[in-house]
C-alpha cells in the first residue's frame, strides 16, 4: 500500500520536474498503476500535487542562505527563493493556481509558502517594531504576499513577456522597494545584541 502511494507521489514529482503536463492519467502511467488505483490514493489531482510537489520547506532554504538581519536584503532573497521554487515545478503550480481560481473553496487547502517566507524574512525587523506599528507591518506582509507569489510571477512571464530570470528579478526588486519604504517610515526599537 505505502509502496504504491510512494510510487504515485514520485511519478507526480518526476513529471513536475520535467515540465510535462500533469494529469492523473499521465501520473498513473508514469507510476505504472491504473488510473483507478491513482484515484484510490488521491481523490483529485490537487491533493496529489499537494502531496508530491508542494512540500518543500522554503523557510529552511531562506534560513540556510540568509546571513543578514537587513529586512530589505532578506525579502529580496525570499522573493528569489519562491520564484525559483515556482519555476522548478511550474506545471504543477499552474494546476494548483488554476484549480483555486476555478473552485475558490479549495484555496484553504493551498500551500501558503509565501507567508512563511515573508514573515521569516521580516522577523529581525518586526521584532523591533512596537505594538503601535503592528498594523503597518501587517499591511506590508499583505502587500508583499501580492508580489511574492506564483500568480505575480506568471503575470510577468505570460502577460509582460519577461524571461523567467527577469521576472524573478522584478519580483525581488519590487519586494525590496516596498520593504525599504516601510522600514524607512516605521520607527523601531534598537536592535539588542
UniProtKB/TrEMBL annotation:
Annotated InterPro entries: Homeodomain-like_sf, HTH_TetR
Lineage: Bacteria, Bacillati, Actinomycetota, Actinomycetes, Kitasatosporales
Keyword vocabulary terms for this entry: DNA-binding
The UniProt record lists the keyword NAD: no
Natural source organism: Streptomyces malaysiensis
SUPFAM superfamilies in the record: Homeodomain-like
Protein name in UniProt: TetR family transcriptional regulator
HTH tetR-type domain: residues covered: 10-51
GO molecular function list: DNA binding
